Amino acid sequence: MKRYFAVLLGILTAIGGFVDIGDLVTNAQVGARLGMSLVWVVVLGVVGICVFAEMSGRIAAVSHRATFDLVRERLGPGMGLLNLVGSMLVTMLTFIAEIGGVALALQLVSSLHHLLIVPFVAVAVWIVLWRAKFSAIENVLGLMGLALIAFAVALWQLGPDWGELVSGLSPAEKPGAESWATYAFFGVALFGAAMTPYEVFFFSSGGVEERWTSKDLGVMRANVFIGFPLGGLLSVAIAGCAATLFLPQGIAVETLGQVGLPVAVALGKVGLAVVVLGFFAATFGAACETGLSTGYSLAQYFGFPWGKFVRPKEAAGFHIILLVTTVIAAGVLLTGVDPIMVTEISVVFSAVALPLTYFPILVVANDPDYLGEHVNGRLANALGVFYLVVLTVAALAAIPLMVVTSMGQG
Amino acid sequence: MRPAVVAVPALLLLAGLLGACGVVSRPDAAAWDDQATLALTDAGSQVATARLALTSAAKERTWSPYTTVLVAEAEEAAAKAEEDLARVQVPPGRADDAAAVLDLLDRAAGLVGEARAHAVDGEYDDRSLLDDLDRLAGELQKAAG
């Protein structure tokens, strides 16, 4: 019974924790401008994150060591450093965007300017990172994130023409006013949002924090292969709501308030309250995950004690990194930079850093010295290699598309 | 690698970047048209957002701070669309077109500002304001092509 409960809890928190500020904003933007024609990219991204999360989770469960620890040892300090710098920069950008996202969510309730809220959010995130148990962060915020299911209910209540919505899934149904370059730019951004590097670092480090063993592989796979795709459905529902309400009215999404508006139109104040709670949980949870991921990455690379399972006094370096990165994130936001713009940039640069993040995982997952009988099978390797090709194409195309389309403006 | 091999391209790149930052370019008519279309589309989106926010609030589907934030952000974005286009040098022979577009954008910024004032005061169901927003959103969409 306890095991079934663990599986259910893991799946629910994986669903609730799947969506972050990048998914919220990018899916709504894409739905409003391109309808459902890029849903295939969400599917591609979700399958990709499942493939690599399963590999990194298996590495953690079998070797009891986390990603950076092994990447540096297996591929050398040079490759490890490249991997560290690339993914750290993107994770830091994402951390800034998530803290900004929490402030924007609270602004929608209070109407206080988000800059006044940012310092309080930063302090709250730091206190949670310092004091709260790992399982509490993962479970409480993950379960609260399930409030975003309101998007799926809202889509049903908006009563779209389902036939039209389904036929809009074809790339050929891209609105004629949008160029193919814009379509490709948003495709890369959606892919970057779905496969954000911090997700695998957090997942594998979390596995070490929770002391996974080979016996936990089944639960881990259930979380990944059931929880992540169901989380991906929330992304599709967000895009569907925006496509149904905004696309016919020519409304482009530029703020978090607009992202929630279809839920208000469909479900009223109660639905809106639920979805704003979802915004808060998704962004606060992701802020904790990205904050922890920066600490995990640096501490694992430089080889000093890390994690929530170690007393703060014994992992002082890890906790100092958490404090410093939180101060930096708040400082950047207090310059007045728009958190939504940071989000847009973070998902594009996430796409740029993808090969640096995922190639080492594929290498380590094939090393019998670490994984013994649990090394990648043929299917995992075929999918891993296929995704490395896709990731490389996305990474190479990201910056040119960003320049050509002026960040998707046209 | 000889230092000159590295230094020359680096200096050229630096010179190019400084040149790009320091020179005000005169866009051709096509580039100005693109910028005008972008500004009109942005402004149309903000006007439609303000209208949707007010009608949702009038039906009691949103709460007051949410509506205020939504419309205030739309006002800021509409004003930015106008300012961004106003800063672009108008191509020769397009002064009348530019004046018409900027006038439309000015009306959009003004009307969304009025919508914000109504949102702050909790007056969500001013029929004439909603009609004006509706009409202007249509005009902006038509002008954007």
UniProtKB/TrEMBL annotation, chain A:
<feature type="transmembrane region" description="Helical">
    <location>
        <begin position="81"/>
        <end position="106"/>
    </location>
</feature>
<feature type="transmembrane region" description="Helical">
    <location>
        <begin position="347"/>
        <end position="365"/>
    </location>
</feature>
<feature type="transmembrane region" description="Helical">
    <location>
        <begin position="38"/>
        <end position="60"/>
    </location>
</feature>
<feature type="transmembrane region" description="Helical">
    <location>
        <begin position="259"/>
        <end position="280"/>
    </location>
</feature>
<dbReference type="GO" id="GO:0015086">
    <property type="term" value="F:cadmium ion transmembrane transporter activity"/>
</dbReference>
<dbReference type="GO" id="GO:0034755">
    <property type="term" value="P:iron ion transmembrane transport"/>
</dbReference>
<keyword id="KW-0472">Membrane</keyword>
<feature type="transmembrane region" description="Helical">
    <location>
        <begin position="316"/>
        <end position="335"/>
    </location>
</feature>
<feature type="transmembrane region" description="Helical">
    <location>
        <begin position="385"/>
        <end position="404"/>
    </location>
</feature>
<dbReference type="GO" id="GO:0005886">
    <property type="term" value="C:plasma membrane"/>
</dbReference>
<keyword id="KW-1133">Transmembrane helix</keyword>
<dbReference type="InterPro" id="IPR001046">
    <property type="entry name" value="NRAMP_fam"/>
</dbReference>
<feature type="transmembrane region" description="Helical">
    <location>
        <begin position="180"/>
        <end position="203"/>
    </location>
</feature>
<protein>
    <submittedName>
        <fullName>Divalent metal cation transporter</fullName>
    </submittedName>
</protein>
<dbReference type="Pfam" id="PF01566">
    <property type="entry name" value="Nramp"/>
</dbReference>
<feature type="transmembrane region" description="Helical">
    <location>
        <begin position="112"/>
        <end position="129"/>
    </location>
</feature>
<feature type="transmembrane region" description="Helical">
    <location>
        <begin position="141"/>
        <end position="160"/>
    </location>
</feature>
<dbReference type="GO" id="GO:0005384">
    <property type="term" value="F:manganese ion transmembrane transporter activity"/>
</dbReference>
<keyword id="KW-0813">Transport</keyword>
<feature type="transmembrane region" description="Helical">
    <location>
        <begin position="224"/>
        <end position="247"/>
    </location>
</feature>
<keyword id="KW-0812">Transmembrane</keyword>
Automatic annotation (TrEMBL), chain B:
<protein>
    <submittedName>
        <fullName>Uncharacterized protein</fullName>
    </submittedName>
</protein>
